Amino acid sequence: MQYPMTPSDLANELGHDPGQHPGNRVRKFLRLRYPDHPRHQPWELDEDMANAVRAHFKVREHFNRRPGRRPRLLDR
Questions:
Q1: Are 3 and 47 in contact (CB under 8 A)?
Q2: Could you report the per-residue pLDDT of 1-50, keeping only the tens digit for each?
Q3: pTM for this structure?
Q4: DSSP for 9-48?
Protein backbone atom coordinates (compact mmCIF):
# COMPACT_ATOMS: atom_id res chain seq x y z
CA MET A 1 0.00 0.00 0.00
CA GLN A 2 1.14 3.49 -0.77
CA TYR A 3 0.06 6.31 1.47
CA PRO A 4 -1.50 8.76 1.20
CA MET A 5 -4.25 7.08 -0.77
CA THR A 6 -7.57 8.36 -2.04
CA PRO A 7 -11.04 7.11 -1.08
CA SER A 8 -11.43 5.84 -4.66
CA ASP A 9 -8.26 3.75 -4.36
CA LEU A 10 -9.48 2.28 -1.10
CA ALA A 11 -12.96 1.60 -2.53
CA ASN A 12 -11.35 -0.34 -5.38
CA GLU A 13 -9.29 -2.32 -2.89
CA LEU A 14 -12.45 -3.17 -0.93
CA GLY A 15 -14.25 -4.26 -4.10
CA HIS A 16 -16.94 -1.59 -4.09
CA ASP A 17 -18.88 -1.09 -7.30
CA PRO A 18 -17.18 1.90 -8.93
CA GLY A 19 -20.22 3.26 -10.78
CA GLN A 20 -19.90 6.90 -11.72
CA HIS A 21 -18.41 8.04 -8.40
CA PRO A 22 -16.03 5.50 -6.91
CA GLY A 23 -15.34 6.05 -3.24
CA ASN A 24 -18.66 7.66 -2.28
CA ARG A 25 -19.33 5.08 0.43
CA VAL A 26 -15.82 5.54 1.78
CA ARG A 27 -16.12 9.34 1.81
CA LYS A 28 -19.50 9.13 3.56
CA PHE A 29 -17.92 7.07 6.35
CA LEU A 30 -14.93 9.44 6.54
CA ARG A 31 -17.17 12.50 6.89
CA LEU A 32 -18.92 10.87 9.87
CA ARG A 33 -15.71 9.62 11.46
CA TYR A 34 -13.62 12.75 10.89
CA PRO A 35 -16.04 15.72 11.03
CA ASP A 36 -13.19 18.26 11.39
CA HIS A 37 -11.92 17.61 7.86
CA PRO A 38 -12.23 20.83 5.81
CA ARG A 39 -15.27 20.78 3.56
CA HIS A 40 -14.71 20.46 -0.19
CA GLN A 41 -11.08 19.46 0.26
CA PRO A 42 -9.68 16.19 -1.12
CA TRP A 43 -9.14 13.29 1.25
CA GLU A 44 -5.61 11.94 1.57
CA LEU A 45 -5.80 8.88 3.75
CA ASP A 46 -2.94 7.86 5.98
CA GLU A 47 -2.54 4.29 7.21
CA ASP A 48 -4.65 4.79 10.35
CA MET A 49 -7.55 6.32 8.42
CA ALA A 50 -7.43 3.59 5.78
CA ASN A 51 -7.39 0.88 8.46
CA ALA A 52 -10.43 2.46 10.14
CA VAL A 53 -12.30 2.33 6.82
CA ARG A 54 -11.23 -1.27 6.21
CA ALA A 55 -12.41 -2.31 9.69
CA HIS A 56 -15.74 -0.53 9.25
CA PHE A 57 -16.55 -2.19 5.95
CA LYS A 58 -15.35 -5.58 7.17
CA VAL A 59 -17.93 -5.41 9.98
CA ARG A 60 -20.56 -4.02 7.62
CA GLU A 61 -20.05 -6.90 5.18
CA HIS A 62 -20.52 -9.35 8.04
CA PHE A 63 -23.93 -7.86 8.78
CA ASN A 64 -24.84 -7.70 5.09
CA ARG A 65 -24.46 -11.49 4.91
CA ARG A 66 -26.97 -11.95 7.72
CA PRO A 67 -30.24 -10.33 6.59
CA GLY A 68 -32.32 -8.79 9.32
CA ARG A 69 -29.42 -8.58 11.78
CA ARG A 70 -27.83 -5.36 10.56
CA PRO A 71 -27.87 -2.38 12.93
CA ARG A 72 -29.72 0.69 11.71
CA LEU A 73 -26.67 2.96 11.47
CA LEU A 74 -23.24 1.42 11.73
CA ASP A 75 -21.46 4.58 10.59
CA ARG A 76 -21.53 6.34 13.96
A1: yes
A2: 789 999 999 998 888 877 767 789 899 999 999 999 999 999 999 999 99
A3: 0.72
A4: HHHHHHT---SSSTTHHHHHHHHHH-TTSPTT----B-HH
DSSP, collapsed to helix, strand or coil, labels residue 55 as: helix
CA–CA–CA angle 13, 72, 50 (5° rounding): 25
**Can you tell me whether residue 5 is helix, strand or coil?**
strand
Return the number of other C-beta atoms located less than 10 Å from residue 42's C-beta: 10
Q: Are 11 and 26 in contact (CB under 8 A)?
A: yes
